[in-house]
Amino acid sequence: MSGDRVELRHLRAFEAVARLKSFTRAADELAITQPALSRTIQQLEKALGATLLDRSSRQVAVTAVGQDFFAHVERILAELQRGVAAVRRQSSLRLGFSWLLPDPWAQHTVARFEQDTGTTVTLVRTDDAVAAVQQGRVDVAVVRGRVGSTAVRVVPLFTESRVAVCSVHSPLADRSELDWAEVPQWPLVVNTASGTTGPWSWPADEGPKTIVETTNFDEWLESVAADRGIGVIPDVAMRRNVHPGVRFIPLRRAPQSPVMLAFLPHARNAILRRFVEAAQSGVCTSGVRGDRHG
């Protein structure tokens, strides 16, 4: 050990062995091998110039010096934990989204992450979530549909079913369902910033002939309500009753719409990493509709 310094890993190792009275159980708790744990304890004893543990009997015993040192170590680790918790309570992760977070996945994931880490998730609504990630305005973003930027890392989560949306005044308003192949027959309202469906959703020359472009979800929704054309959107919108002026129509044979997390690939943020892990774990525990990605 360089300079015989006492490091945090040595204190954690000694505390575990002294508390559990077992190298085997301490190694399991710390997720390290027994030889590695033994070396760590030996380094600590060498740095202190004292024997902390008596290994002569079947059960590990703490020496008199070790008992005194153990009391100090417990206080140090407890104070450290209080400090970590205090900082985490003040820390925040910024989660960007363009419209309607997927339910119940988003609510379950955020609640569990905040409980487990003590970090507050700040929800940031933005018209272009990918751009917000690139510009550093959010730490991570929920994105749907296609992501053209190569400047962000994308982690697939699951897919959502699509539904058609039309004005209450549209000739389609009384339809009980619509086939995906019928969609190109109607003007299509497209959200160019964060939409999931556009001309790119069909092979060349097979998509809608008339495209009505909007630049955010609110413009898209009001344009559909004004009967400028029809829209296609994940069915989360139907469950949330987003506008009295539109009707939702089930779509047959429509491809699923992917949901992903986007963040900067060079980010080395432990809290961000834990959120991504919680988000992926939440796919399996929150009853997400659609297909799950591993």
UniProtKB/TrEMBL annotation:
UniProt name for this protein: Probable hydrogen peroxide-inducible genes activator
What's its job? Required for the induction the katG gene for catalase. Involved in the response to hydrogen peroxide.
- InterPro entries in alphabetical order: LysR_HTH_N, LysR_subst-bd, WH-like_DNA-bd_sf, WH_DNA-bd_sf
Q: Does the keyword DNA-binding apply?
A: yes
Q: Which GO terms describe its cellular component?
A: protein-DNA complex
What keywords does the record list, in alphabetical order?
Activator, DNA-binding, Transcription, Transcription regulation
The GO terms this record gives for MF are: DNA binding; DNA-binding transcription factor activity
Q: What is the originating organism of this protein?
A: Mycobacterium talmoniae
Q: Which family does it belong to?
A: Belongs to the LysR transcriptional regulatory family.
Q: Does the keyword Ion transport apply?
A: no
Report the PROSITE patterns cross-referenced here: HTH_LYSR
Which stretches make up the HTH lysR-type domain? 6-63
Taken from the record, one Pfam family name reads HTH_1
